[in-house]
Amino acid sequence: MTATYTFDVFSSLDGFGAAGGDWTGYWGKQGPELLDHRLALYGEEQRMVFGARTYRLFAQMLADATEEAEVRDPWVTRMRGLPATVVSTTLEGPLDWPEASVASGDAVDVVARLKEESAVPLRSHGSLSMNRALMAAGLVDRVQVTLYPVITGRSGLDPVFGGADDFDLELIESRTLDGHIQELVYRPTLHA
After folding, report:
1. How far is the C-alpha of 125 from the C-alpha of 116, rounded, in Å?
2. Scanning 69, 88, 105, 131, which has its CA 20 to 30 A from the CA of 48?
3. How far apart are CA 178 and CA 190, in angstroms?
4. Beta strands in the chain (DSSP E)
5. Burial label, 78 (beta-carbon count in 10 A; 0-12, 13-18, 19+)
6. How many domains does the chain have?
7. What's the pTM value of the predicted model, to 2 decimals?
8. In terms of C-beta density within 10 A (0-12 exposed, 13-18 middle, 19 or more buried), how is residue 141 classed?
9. What is the residue-level pLDDT of the chain in tens, covering all 192 positions?
10. What is the DSSP string of 117-144?
11. What CATH number should be reported for the domain holding residue 129?
């Protein structure tokens, strides 16, 4: 049986995964419904998959954050407690992350193997370039975009799909959270 792989990402309306300037986490738009939904989402049994850059960013943010910081929201704490695979050719274990291991090699090969071997679904939050490559290889079953009602034209960082191939998307789930945040879940297929 092949495990389902979900690419889970936050985005501004104009397609950026983060922003500089005076924007805060979640672009300052989070509310209790979003945070409760994220906590429930990460309460399910699953394995996280990260690229080395995203792992380093999460590990550094968590190490630098106070207990009250939004980077330590309960869903993030729960995510950190899930088993994780970090795909990297530069990192070596042990990692400063409970139940995390390093899988050396090409992400396409590593994730193809994980999909065949894993008894639980796979999920990746962030890891943009890795997930674009996995989409191109046909390994991403679901793209889950949490769309924040902001445009970050001048301050946008990390274009979510910048440099990606062309894809057709089939909408399989949608919901509105806190009256203004959209969560859209798609099944991607490479556009022929």
Report:
1. 20
2. 69
3. 32
4. 5-12, 16-19, 47-51, 84-87, 100-103, 122-125, 142-148, 156-159, 167-177, 181-190
5. middle
6. 1
7. 0.94
8. middle
9. 699 999 999 999 999 999 999 998 899 999 999 999 999 999 999 999 999 999 998 888 877 766 665 566 899 889 999 999 999 999 887 888 889 999 999 999 999 999 999 999 999 999 999 999 999 999 999 999 999 999 999 999 999 999 999 999 999 999 999 999 999 999 999 998
10. H-SS-EEEES-HHHHHHHHHTT---EEE
11. 3.40.430.10
Q: Residue 53 belongs to what domain range? A: 5-190
pLDDT of residue 68: 63
pLDDT at 97: 87
Distance CA 91, CA 69 (A): 27
Contacts of 175 (CB under 8 A, 6+ apart): 37, 182, 183
CA 115 from centroid of its chain's CA atoms: 17
Question: CB of 4 within 8 A of CB of 121?
Answer: yes
Q: Beta-carbon neighbour count of residue 166 at 10 Å? A: 9
Tokens of 115: 């999909």
Rg, C-alpha atoms of the chain: 16
